[in-house]
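Q: I have 185 residues here and want to know how they pack in 3D. Can you give me a structure?
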Amino acid sequence: MYRFLRISVVALYVLLGLLFLTSVVLPFVSKGVFDFNLANLDNIDIQTGSILYEVRGIVTLTGIVNVKWLVSLAFVVLTVNLVFFQFVLIQLKQIITDVYHKIPFSDKNIKRLKYMGIAYLVSSVVLPMVNGSLFAMVANTFNIFEATVSFSMDLQSVFIGIIILILAYVFEYGAALQEDIDLTV
C-alpha cells in the first residue's frame, strides 16, 4: 500500500507539473488553434454526474467558436481537483508510514486525520461549485442550452469527512490510552 501511495504521489506531482507548464505555455499559443466547429456537436450526449443531456435533434449547431479560455478554465478545474486528491494522498501516505513504524497514535497522525476530514468537508462545497461552473461555461459557450450553476453539496464527501474526523478523535483517545499504558509500564 505504501509503494502504491508513493508512486501515486509522484505521478500526481508529475501531472501537476505538466498542467503548470501547459498553463504557462497556453497564453502564447495562437488563438486560431482553439477554433472549434460546432457542427461536430450534432450527435453528442453530455453527462455530468448522474444527469445525461441528449443533444440530438434539439438544435442545429453551426459556426465556429474559439475555446481557448474554456481550455484554460478546464486546466484550472483539473488542477483544483488534483490538488485536493494529492493532499489526501500525501496525508494518507504519511499515516501509513507512521503505522508501519509502529507509531499509529502519534499527534502528527491525529492532525493529519483532522486535516483530511476538514479537506473533505471543504471539498464537498468547493469541488461541486468549480466543476459545475465549468459545465455551465461549456454549455453556454456552445449554445447547447442555457445553463446556470446551482449549488449542491456533495453529501458523500460530507459523510466521508465526518467519518474521518470521528476516526481522528478515536485516534486521539487511543493516543491518550497509549500514553497511560506507557507511563504505567
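Q: Anything worth noting?
A: The chain is about 65% helix and 10% strand. The longest helix spans residues 107-141.
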